[in-house]
Amino acid sequence: MPATISKDLLDFFKKLEKNNNREWFTEHKPTFKALESDVKRFYQDVFENLQKHDDVDKIKVFRIYRDVRFSKDKTPYKTHFGGSFGRTKPRLRGGYYVHISPNNESFLATGFWQPHKDDLLRIRKELELDAADFRKIIGAKKFKETWGALEGEEVKTSPKGFNKEHPDIDLIKKKQFIFTKKFTDKEVISSDFIKEIDASFRVIRPYFDYMSEVLTTDLNGVSLID
């Protein structure tokens, strides 16, 4: 049987949204721990599926406790689960993320969320030189049907040292290079959800292959990791 996310988990988070305090959580902690155990098994199955078609060596399931030190929102608990999966560096780049949240707010995310400044410059330089392959990959029919358009924060005009009139400035000015895919609560608790996650992550592979090649070579195509 494929691993599943239970309706009980989504219901728990809905209740936590209304009772986000230590007293309520402490009272219901046994319920949470049981749900957490099930979710960790789900994430482990996602990880094992990824390993069948990618070189993935890291899995992290984020804790429910919020860091409120620098936040205006002082509620102590997250009302979602998040799990990330890292590809084996330095040869492979990019990562996967699965976000489980009620109220139709679950999603997958993949790509480059906070690229190191040297990696960001290298990506921009590649796109400045020739963005044709990049556009071909993200513009492919199946890719667009699965992931939609490229997302991420960007500078207002152009990064320092780049021509704002460059024909590919829409890509060059990106600070993040990410894709997301949203799911309804009904889809999340479906027995097919884990299959849909894996199928979606498989589609992203040409993008990761391209970016890994860019980030492990210089502009002349010479390897930086040999």
Question: Can you offer a commentary on this structure?
Answer:
The protein has 226 residues and is α+β, with helices and mostly antiparallel strands. The protein contains ten helices and five strands, in the order H-H-H-E-E-E-E-H-H-H-H-E-H-H-H. It has a five-stranded antiparallel sheet with strand order 1-2-3-4-5. Helix 3 (29-51) packs across helix 9 (193-203). The longest helix is centred in the N-terminal third of the chain and has 23 residues, at 29-51. It is globular and about 60 Å long. The mean pLDDT is 96.
Short description:
The protein is of the alpha+beta class.
Outline the fold blueprint.
Blueprint: H1 7-18, H2 22-27, H3 29-51, E1 56-61, E2 81-87, E3 95-100, E4 106-112, H4 117-129, H5 132-139, H6 141-147, H7 169-172, E5 177-183, H8 185-188, H9 193-203, H10 205-215
Antiparallel strand pairs: 1-2, 2-3, 3-4, 4-5
Distance between the termini: 43 Å
Quaternary: single chain
How is the main sheet built? 5 strands, antiparallel
Average pLDDT metric? 96
Briefly note the structural class of the backbone. Answer: alpha+beta
Beta-strand content: 5-15%
Shape: globular
C-alpha Rg (nearest Å) = 20 Å
Topology as a string of helices (H) and strands (E): HHHEEEEHHHHEHHH
Kindly report the spatial arrangement of strands forming the biggest sheet: 1-2-3-4-5
**pLDDT < 50 stretches:** none
The portion of residues assigned to helices is 40-55%
H/I helix tally? 10
